[in-house]
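Bumping my old thread because nobody answered last time. Still need a sequence for this structure:
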């Protein structure tokens, strides 16, 4: 027996199709049914590679007693946060207001008449444990509260609504006259401190913070932090740490320790795209560590082998958990990736194992539940002996050598994972949906890596994905966010527009002879402005003006999380477009957006490094006009606020023209003079 979710496209939603809970997807029919029946809505939001979402699906959501009570007393709705980040943002903010913390699964209880939450939490066990009440107890208590405490219910919802509205309009007491250079310096100091090595807690990539910290090193701020050292250390932690899959490429989501050793093993497309761009930027800034180039190359191979659809787009994610064998009842975290010492002894020669132990964190007792997560102990090149050893481990995992395993088909669900005759280990499930925003982050990463490491194949891979999006994601003239096996669905949100416009501009900068990328960026920016720009407040709403009816508040994304803020990227795009098209309307919009978020940048710079990056673009924007030969020399360099364009009609004896915002400098007569002008223009503050 299955519920309504069996008809949905989302892998995450379909995972719940066999639950005894009478799930609905989020839709007008579900919301209207809840109103007519007078039932509070149980809204549960998660995503396919979320470990605790999977746990709750197998426990509380599969429990018959819980399902019986839920179906009689609530209208249960399941949402894939990757399909509807706008809903996730609103109800996550509500959860954080109520509990002081967030996370997934996000479980909220809403009044059916106005969709305002009156209670929210994360993981609920079936029975009381971990200091948490049993889920049935929670349901009974909340239904009783909803039925008997109407005044307190009204007051509680009023507080939440007021807080959400206040947050949405960004009413702050900040000094709106703080100078831009002061905002930048203070923001750089705080955000650099956030990625400075720490002694406790999980370790996340946090690439928007890394990018701001790196671009700020050119200002030579007087600071307690050595910015270049902090940025280099983060690059080394990523490229050497257990967060990177040293056997087969690709970065895991984060590590559960401050030493970058044991990861949470899911691999997300958005992390990998951002990390590629950051490591390429480090290299172009002169920090040319061989481990950076190796991890970039390995990640691109992983992307081609496991994450690229036959039609050219990139899949969304791979789970953390996988099955040890086809008869296992439940998958185990990290099973696809870790190694017992006995396995290593069997697979490697004594010489290879000895060298592996000298260069990686390998011991008989392991570092993760008796198993070994590979973490490099030293930077530099790996020896040929170690590369051969890692190839043997690859063959044990995949059933073929790295040279012959150019494609590895995805397991699309647990059934497929368990029933396919895999030549090596059973792989983790891959979520094969196409998300425009996440694909765009990878396109940008590939474009930048192609420039810096002089790898045309990276650019080809990026261009192929961008072409798929452009050719397939417009339905009835409107841009769409998702694609399930050829079917575009869900209107694009601000991050889809912003990140894809950036990707198109990055492709243009990597291939300045192809003006088609720039023309596409301009066309998509027009649609973005028409449907999501806030004339009254400035900046971009998360959702379009004709697709916000089911939201209790219309938000503007300005905070950076695992991905950059949409408005931070969008405002930087506007500055770049103004440089490349000479259209000052873009610059007017960028200025309006920065004014809208100036209070946030002043009061909470730790929340918005991407907005500070946009401010850097606005203050130090530089346009370089030159011939193809000079442009090709400039492309691999670290010029964080420069836009490049090819011109063919330079005056005799000049190699280019450097323009600072709205004024141009005297035409340089040599490449060295051109480069000096560019570097000065990048640091005008």
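Sorry it took so long. Here it is:
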């Amino acid at each position: 027996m299955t519920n309504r979710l069996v008809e949905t496209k989302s892998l995450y939603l379909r995972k719940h199709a066999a639950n005894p809970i009478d799930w609905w997807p989020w839709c007008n029919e579900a919301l209207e049914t809840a109103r007519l029946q007078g039932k509070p809505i149980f809204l549960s939001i998660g995503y396919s590679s979320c470990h605790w979402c999977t746990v709750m699906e197998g426990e509380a959501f599969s429990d018959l007693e819980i399902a019986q009570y839920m179906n009689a007393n609530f209208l249960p709705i399941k949402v894939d946060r990757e399909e509807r980040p706008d809903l996730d943002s609103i109800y996550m903010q509500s959860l954080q207001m109520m509990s002081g913390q967030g996370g997934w699964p996000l479980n909220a209880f809403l009044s059916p008449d106005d969709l305002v939450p009156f209670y929210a939490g994360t993981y609920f066990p079936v029975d009381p444990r971990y200091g948490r009440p049993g889920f049935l107890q929670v349901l009974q208590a909340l239904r009783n509260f909803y039925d008997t405490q109407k005044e307190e219910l009204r007051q509680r919802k009023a507080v939440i609504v007021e807080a959400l509205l206040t947050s949405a309009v960004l009413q702050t007491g900040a000094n709106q006259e703080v100078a831009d250079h002061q905002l930048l310096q203070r923001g750089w100091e705080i955000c650099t401190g956030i990625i400075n090595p720490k002694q406790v807690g999980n370790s996340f990539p946090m690439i928007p913070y890394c990018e701001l910290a790196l671009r700020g090193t050119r200002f030579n701020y007087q600071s307690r932090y050595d910015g270049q050292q902090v940025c280099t250390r983060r690059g080394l932690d990523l490229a050497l740490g257990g967060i990177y899959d040293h056997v087969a490429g690709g970065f895991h989501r984060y590590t559960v320790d401050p030493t970058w050793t044991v990861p949470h093993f899911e691999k997300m497309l958005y992390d990998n795209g951002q990390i590629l761009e950051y490591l390429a930027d480090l290299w172009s800034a002169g920090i040319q560590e061989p481990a950076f180039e190796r991890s970039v190359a390995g990640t691109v191979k992983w992307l081609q082998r496991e994450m690229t659809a036959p039609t050219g787009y990139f899949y969304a994610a791979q789970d953390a958990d996988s099955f040890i064998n086809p008869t296992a009842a439940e998958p185990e975290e990290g099973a696809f990736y870790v190694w017992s010492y006995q396995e290593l002894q069997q697979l490697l020669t004594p010489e290879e194992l000895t060298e592996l132990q000298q260069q990686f964190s390998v011991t008989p007792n392991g570092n993760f539940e008796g198993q070994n997560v590979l973490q490099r102990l030293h930077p530099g090149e790996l020896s040929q002996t170690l590369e051969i050893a890692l190839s043997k481990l690859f063959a044990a995992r995949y059933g073929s050598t790295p040279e012959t395993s150019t494609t590895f088909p995805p397991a699309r669900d647990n059934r497929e994972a368990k029933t396919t005759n895999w030549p090596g280990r059973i792989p983790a499930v891959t979520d094969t949906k196409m998300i425009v925003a996440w694909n765009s982050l990878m396109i940008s990463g590939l474009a930048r890596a192609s420039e810096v490491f002089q790898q045309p194949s990276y650019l080809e891979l990026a261009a192929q994905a961008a072409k798929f999006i452009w050719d397939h994601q417009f339905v009835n003239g409107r841009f769409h966010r998702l694609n399930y096996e050829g079917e575009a669905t869900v209107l694009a949100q601000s991050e889809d527009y912003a990140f894809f416009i950036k990707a198109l501009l990055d492709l243009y900068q990597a291939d300045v002879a192809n003006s088609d990328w720039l023309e596409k960026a301009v066309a998509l920016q027009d649609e973005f402005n028409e449907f999501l720009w806030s004339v009254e407040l400035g900046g971009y709403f998360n959702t379009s003006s004709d697709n916000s009816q089911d939201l209790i508040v219309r938000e503007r994304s300005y905070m950076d999380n695992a991905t950059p803020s949409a408005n931070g990227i969008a405002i930087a795009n506007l500055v770049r477009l103004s440089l490349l098209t000479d259209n000052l309307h873009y610059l007017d919009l960028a200025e309006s957006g920065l004014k809208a978020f100036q209070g946030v940048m002043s009061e909470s710079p730790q929340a918005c490094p991407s907005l500070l990056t946009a401010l850097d673009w606005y203050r130090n924007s530089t346009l370089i006009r030159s011939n193809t030969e000079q442009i090709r020399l400039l492309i691999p360099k670290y010029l964080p606020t420069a836009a490049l364009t090819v011109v063919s009609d330079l005056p005799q004896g000049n190699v280019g023209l450097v323009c600072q915002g709205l004024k141009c400098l005297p035409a340089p007569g040599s490449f060295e003079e051109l480069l000096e002008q560019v570097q000065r223009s990048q640091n005008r503050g």
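The first helix runs from residue 11 to 14. Let me know if any region looks off to you.
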